[in-house]
């Protein structure tokens, strides 16, 4: 009996050891799973907060890659580079992420370095202020929902805003800011020789550099409301005098 009891303790001891080994293995598995996720190449897509009516869609190019992004409702695709889903989001495949709880229309998009492209179709019937940053490089940005705030950042950027009451800032570089398909938009060329196209009720500010401003029609309501070339030798057409 004693021998059996001893043997039993030994067995239990081995079971404990085995259990410890399994626990260690599981912890190790968790660790090894975390390392590839941390090291995974790809831009990050996540919600902040991760759910609810104010959950904003975040896009961050943390790898300095070329991005070619499309946002359509709660789905983000990048035709040029892989995506890694974070809080509130999940990968459909390596270039596609969906964020099931995203319906606010709020965005914080950072395209990071390189010459990137984005089309934001947004969410139908939502017009909350949202933000897109081209950052470094010559970026092409098209924003369709109302109330966007688009910043080209450094480089020669092309920004096309098509909503209502949106704004575009070209940043340093020779930019093209196009509001011909929008209404009541604010365009700021900032530094560089910029081209600004307005439309109904637009406010065009060339700011520093030799800018070309086209208000589309010198008479409201079809044309721009204000065309101000700012410092530099400017060409101003189809604007109210
Ligand atoms: Ca980029
Ligand atoms: Ca840029
Ligand atoms: Ca500029």
UniProtKB/TrEMBL annotation:
Cell cycle listed as a keyword: no
Signal peptide: 1-26
Pfam family, one: HemolysinCabind
GO molecular function: calcium ion binding
SUPFAM superfamilies xref list: beta-Roll
Keywords, sorted A to Z: Signal
Gene3D superfamilies per UniProt: 2.160.20.160
Family matches, as InterPro entries: Hemolysn_Ca-bd, Serralysin-like_metalloprot_C
Keyword Signal in record: yes
Protein name: Calcium-binding protein
